[in-house]
């Protein structure tokens, strides 16, 4: 698609703008089919994005996306059309707004709930510097469940500045939007005057709701909001349809929220095993409950939610609240499982410490998408969880080697009376479901050697097996251990080993993870520790194997070090 400039948008007729929208929609569909990415959310936001670019003067005016996965049309309209085929590829365009990618991206985003806070800060900086320009926060209705939104609204009067909040209301996040805020927005769409006061009391002029997929209706509303913005903050409420313009996406917005690249082979998903095992446990154990934060389907829990409705809780994009809810369910005698992506669990860090672990409550955290996740980039790489969970008292941290061992850990968790986190990638191999003893490592290959390698998780065990095979070709052998618990460490096994060269592989940053824990255990006894994980940098988007190698888990480099030790 050729680039469409600001001048062309501002001079185009409504008919020409509608044609541009269809061209944008087609380009998004073609590119996502090849590169993967967020489809239905971007299709639904095309007219809204065109209207913003037409009405305002970006990049002088600032547009902040909440989450940012709906920014594809924005990228196409801001001088990046020629590079759009590189979307989510290593070295190409990010699937989210990136300040170092374009002056049109004024704030990096990737998690929900941050846009209004960010817009307020940008607006206040503008005021203090005596500059002009407007600041717009584009926020989905799913994000309006997030508490950070209301913390930001609460400070609108205090900061004494002006912003435009565009509420993109399509009734969806990844799963359908739930909760009291959803009910308020539904009433507003039906003309609920009393609900308007909620926003007015925060200091916002409410406009809407308008059809966000109809330019004839949307453009005048956008101009009205711009005029009002001269003297006050405005909330412009627009209704859009997720997947707009393509019937399959419209009818299946959850299935088309995120699309895998063409030709991707589908392995067994850990989330499928989670749903199956929790449902099996819940059949005979009435204490089993499941908690999610707006990601029921992505986490494999749709079947559980349908079968055990009274014990299934989707609280929307409220990760902290979900954590406290799980803690209090446990305090009340239930056995809750809080399923969440690694990157989003970071948002509930305080609650993990004080509410769950501080009270030593039997909450099981099912930490999905752990390790490098690939094409979604820095905000979605799950490479910190072993580090930020490693030092919390009372918490047990498990790392299964395959889907079968994950099932075994879930079965063991039913009678485990304390906080437990099980971290795993999106996909993996099936395997035997054998009993797992908490805190015990597993020797996968044993030999008489002065080298031992501890690998944590499926990816690192696969990497270690490959290194072992190549080492044998070079006349070298070593013992390989499945280090399936970060906490507690298998100190009995560690103390029993006599190897002088100790290698540790983990799909996590090196600082604070398994390598550090093993190095602390062996400190001062003369062994040489070689710890491999990711370095002190944020990992960008790209192909998982390439990123893994480039950022610290390089099989060739590890093999060279193993062979060097073998010759000593």
Question: Can you characterise this structure?
Answer:
With 568 residues, the chain is α/β, with parallel strands linked by helices. The chain folds into 3 domains: 6-259, 3-Layer(aba) Sandwich (Rossmann fold), CATH 3.40.50; 268-428, 3-Layer(aba) Sandwich (Rossmann fold), CATH 3.40.50; 442-566, Rossmann fold, CATH 3.40.50. Helices cover 40% and strands 17% of the residues. A 7-stranded mixed sheet has the order 10-9-11-12-14-13-19, with helices on both faces. Strands 2-3-4-6-5 form a 5-stranded parallel sheet, with helices on both faces. Strands 16-18-17-20-21 form a 5-stranded mixed sheet, sandwiched between helices. α13 runs parallel beside α19 (403-413), α15 runs parallel beside α17 (349-357) and α20 packs across α24 (555-566). The longest helix is centred in the first third of the chain and has 22 residues, at 14-35. The mean pLDDT is 92.
CATH H-level homologous superfamily name of the largest domain: Thiamin diphosphate (ThDP)-binding fold, Pyr/PP domains
Instruction: Using the coordinates above, name the CATH class of the largest domain.
Output: Alpha Beta
Strand order of the largest sheet: 10-9-11-12-14-13-19
User: Under the CATH scheme, which architecture of the largest domain would be assigned?
Assistant: 3-Layer(aba) Sandwich
- The residue-averaged pLDDT reads 92
CATH topology of the largest domain: Rossmann fold
How far apart are the first and last residues' alpha carbons, in Å? 59 Å
């Amino acid at each position: 698609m050729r680039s469409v400039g600001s001048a062309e948008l501002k001079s185009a007729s409504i008919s020409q703008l509608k044609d541009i929208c269809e061209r944008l929609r087609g380009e998004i569909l073609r590119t996502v089919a090849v590169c993967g990415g967020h489809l239905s959310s971007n299709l639904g936001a095309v007219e809204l994005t065109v209207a913003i670019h037409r009405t305002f003067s970006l990049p002088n005016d600032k547009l902040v996306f909440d989450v940012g996965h709906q920014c594809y049309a924005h990228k196409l309209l801001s001088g990046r059309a020629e590079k759009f085929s590189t979307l989510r590829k290593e070295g190409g365009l990010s699937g989210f707004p990136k300040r170092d990618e374009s002056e049109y991206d004024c704030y990096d985003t990737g998690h929900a709930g941050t846009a209004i806070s960010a817009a307020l800060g940008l607006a206040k900086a503008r005021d203090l510097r005596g500059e002009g320009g407007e600041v717009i926060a584009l926020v989905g209705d799913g994000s309006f469940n997030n508490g950070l939104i209301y913390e930001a609204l609460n400070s609108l009067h205090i900061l004494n500045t002006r912003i435009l909040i565009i509420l993109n209301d399509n009734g969806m996040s990844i799963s359908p939007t739930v909760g009291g805020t959803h009910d308020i927005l539904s009433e507003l769409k039906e003309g609920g005057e009393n609900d308007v006061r909620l926003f007015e009391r925060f200091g916002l002029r409410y406009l809407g709701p308008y059809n966000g997929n109809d330019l004839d209706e949307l453009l005048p509303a956008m101009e009205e909001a711009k005029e009002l913005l001269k003297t006050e903050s405005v909330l412009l409420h627009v209704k859009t349809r997720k997947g707009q313009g393509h019937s399959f996406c419209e009818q299946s917005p959850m299935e088309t929220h995120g699309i895998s690249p063409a030709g991707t082979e589908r392995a067994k998903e850990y989330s499928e095993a989670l749903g199956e095992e929790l449902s099996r446990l819940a059949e005979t154990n009435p204490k089993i409950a499941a908690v999610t934060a707006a990601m029921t389907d992505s986490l494999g829990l749709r079947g559980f939610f349908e079968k055990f409705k009274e014990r299934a809780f989707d609280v929307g994009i409220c990760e902290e609240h979900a954590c406290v809810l799980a803690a209090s369910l446990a305090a009340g005698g239930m056995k809750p499982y809080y399923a969440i992506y690694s990157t989003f669990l970071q948002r509930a860090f305080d609650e993990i410490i004080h509410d769950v672990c501080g009270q030593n409550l039997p909450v099981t955290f099912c930490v999905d998408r752990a390790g490098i996740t690939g094409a979604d980039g820095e905000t979605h790489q799950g490479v910190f969880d072993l580090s930020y969970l490693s030092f919390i008292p009372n918490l047990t941290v498990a790392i299964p080697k395959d889907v079968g061992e994950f099932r075994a850990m879930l079965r063991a968790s039913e009678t485990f009376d304390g906080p437990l986190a099980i971290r795993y990638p999106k996909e993996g191999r099936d395997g035997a479901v054998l009993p797992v003893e908490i805190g015990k490592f597993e020797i996968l290959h044993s030999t008489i050697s002065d080298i031992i390698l501890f690998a944590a998780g499926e990816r690192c065990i696969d990497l270690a097996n490959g290194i072992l095979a190549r080492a044998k070709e070079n006349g070298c052998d070593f013992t390989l251990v499945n280090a399936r618990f970060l906490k507690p460490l298998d100190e009995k096994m560690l103390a029993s080993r006599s190897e002088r060269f100790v290698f540790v592989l983990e799909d996590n940053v090196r600082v604070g993870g398994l390598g550090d824990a093993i190095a602390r255990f062996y400190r001062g006894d003369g062994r040489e520790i070689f710890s491999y994980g990711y370095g002190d940098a944020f990992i960008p988007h790209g192909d998982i194997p390439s990123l893994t190698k480039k950022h610290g888990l390089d099989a060739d480099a590890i093999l060279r070090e193993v062979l060097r030790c073998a010759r000593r």
